[in-house]
Write the structure tokens for this entry.
Amino acid sequence: MPELPEVEVVRRGLAEHVIGRQISRARLTGPRVARRHEAGPADLAARVQGALIRAADRRGKYLWLVLDPPDDDPAALVVHLGMSGQMLVQPPEAPREKHLHATVDFADAGPQLRFVDQRTFGGLALTGMVPDPYTPPGDPGGGAGPGAAHADGIPEPVRHIAPDPLEPAFDAAAVARRMKAKDVALKRLLLDQTVVSGIGNIYADEALWRARVHGARAASSLTRPALVRLLGHAADVMTEALGQGGTSFDALYVNVNGASGYFDRSLAAYGQTGRPCPRCGAPIRRETFMNRSSHSCPRCQVRPRRPR
């Protein structure tokens, strides 16, 4: 599933190609693509017609377009990428992709926006906007993803999601205090989007490897400075991944132009089972954690003892 760097790569591509353009027509194929929009695909298509795209925004793994619909308050077209969702910018005359589920045409007759999803876990939904509970009062914001506050607010379904390590509202010291108070495994907290958003399995493993801490360690067993450093490692590794276009293990994750990222070549722990740890040479181990794979170095990241 795309994590923060991959979603930010898509957001940047959308910002470059669709901001300031007016939607002339949206076509959705089948009910699944709009299953999160209660009124159905026909209603969603009708409501976005004529809307102006004001911004492309994101919090953690959540992506949305800020719309100015005719005679309405700003709304958010939330894009759920799921496991294999792709937002592609294509010429209108380009051949239709095999798993194409939605197309958006614009009044300028320029490039078309397409939603392609092979596994159909993703989709589109139109929702209202609410004030961002993490934006300080009076902050003018910027509504442009990392580096700017959410001036237009956030979609109502995203209001419970915590800030991610790459946005101004993120307070590492405050998050570390929350984590310190919990007798819960570190990796479980890193994956909890209500504690810190944007971190998934890949970047949790990489951050823990950099911090030399096993993901099963209880957060309460670390000092607050150690937890702040761990969060800093998460921010660093995601920033590096962003610089390389994200992590692609197959052809399902691509940017809006169809290109894959290549940070998978720089991974130290995730997916490296049996390969030597870049730091000490011990073979990277794979364990099961929360019904998924977890990767760590048995020498650098000592597994905590189980209580008797």
